Each structure stands twice: as C-alpha cells, then as structure tokens.
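INTERNAL AUDIT FORM
Audit reference: QA-55
Scope: verify that the stored structure record matches its stored sequence.
Auditor: D.O.
Record contents follow.
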Amino acid sequence: MPTSYTPILKLALPANGELSGTWGTVVNDNVTSMIEEAIAGQASVSSWSANAATITTANGTTSAGRAMMLDLSGTLTAAGTLTVPTANKMFIVKNGTTGGFAVTVKMATGTGVSVPNGTTMIVYADGTNVIRAAGDVDLNSAQTLTNKTLNLANNTVTGTLPVANGGTGTTTSTGSGSVVLSTSPSLTSPVLGTPTSGTLTNCTFPTLNQNTTGSAASVSGASSNGYGTRTVSTSAPSGGSNGDIWYRVS
C-alpha cells in the first residue's frame, strides 16, 4: 500500500512495511518540515491575474496554502481576491499590495473576509466560509468596543473627538483649567486681563471711581436736540482743575 496524505495539511502517511531504509527522509521532508510550515511558515503571494490569486496545498511538499502567514505583495489595479484551499485552516494575512486596494480572502465557494490595504488580519477557513477570527483588532478601521477598558498610558491619541461624544471638538488649545464649550456661556468671576480690543455694546458698567488715574479721551458728537456739539474732557476749564470731568455745549 503506497504512502497516503492527510486531507488538510497534506502530511505523509507511510503505510506499514513501506519505505524500508528511507523513513528518515520521508519523516523529515514530508512530515516534520510540513508541520513547521503550517505552524510558523510564511508564504509570499505576489502574482495576480486580473487582481486574483489562488493558493493550494500539495502532498508532502512546501505550499503557500499550508503556510500560517500569507504576505500579499505585488500591484493591484482594483479590489483583489485570494482563494485559499477548501479546508479548515487559520491564516494570518498581511495585505501589503501596491495600489491601495483591499483583498478578499475566500475559498472557491462561500463568503470571505476583506483585508484592507496595509492591514494584517487573522482569518479562519471553516471548510465553507472564511471568517474573521475573534480577538483580531484592526487599528486601521472603525471598531465597536463593547464592555472594554482601554489603557492608553504612554500612548498618544490624535484627532478630534466631537462634543457630542464627550470631547471638545477642537484639535488645539491654549492655557489651562476648565474648557467652555457653550456658544453663549455664563462666566462667573472671569479674569480677563488687559484686552487689546473689544466691543462692549449692551454692557452694564459700574459707577466709575472718580479717583481713577489716567486721562480720558475727548468725546464729541453732533447734537440731536438742537444744542450743538457736546464735548467731554478732563482738561481743566476756567475755574476748574485737572481731573474734573466737564461737559460743554457749543
């Protein structure tokens, strides 16, 4: 009875009484090496025909379809398709192709998994469909995390988190302390410093301290009631002193 091979990994199954004196070669080349390839082997897939490629598993010889890791390279001009053997098998697939297109990993029939360009995913062929393995986290695409705790210590998170999601909606900030997000905030005891400009329309002013130092600018305007031009100044009028505020109608 000749040597047969396992259905999934195609490992040699020598028959009893066969291979006298050659067992070492068969075991080393057609069994041991093939097991290592299935557990830790990496195969390159770089030849594409119409953006499609097929890998197979051969009896007792090295094959891309047996390898654990598949390194996809070469150039795609559209979304690609990689067909793997119809058998139960796990693959770690790295889409390093040129062109920016995703590659769908599938068997000859059934559904598959789309691996985005520049992404590495763990996929599992169950003999019917290729599915994405649980626990695989693709950091290059949107993910939904339910009941998970993220530890971001010693990591930098970039981008803008919208206000509706608990963020500030900004990418940069200055100063320190509390952040005001309202478009019409009510500020309690703010310290504004010395503004360089501003519009104070509709503001309510407190009574001015008459001992305030400094010079006030002259204010004048046309009369609206027939009494001429009104001027306010701190310059001393006849009989007055500097610092007095006087009002003249001319």
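Auditor finding: record pair retrieved intact. The first strand starts at residue 4 and ends at 5.
Action required: none
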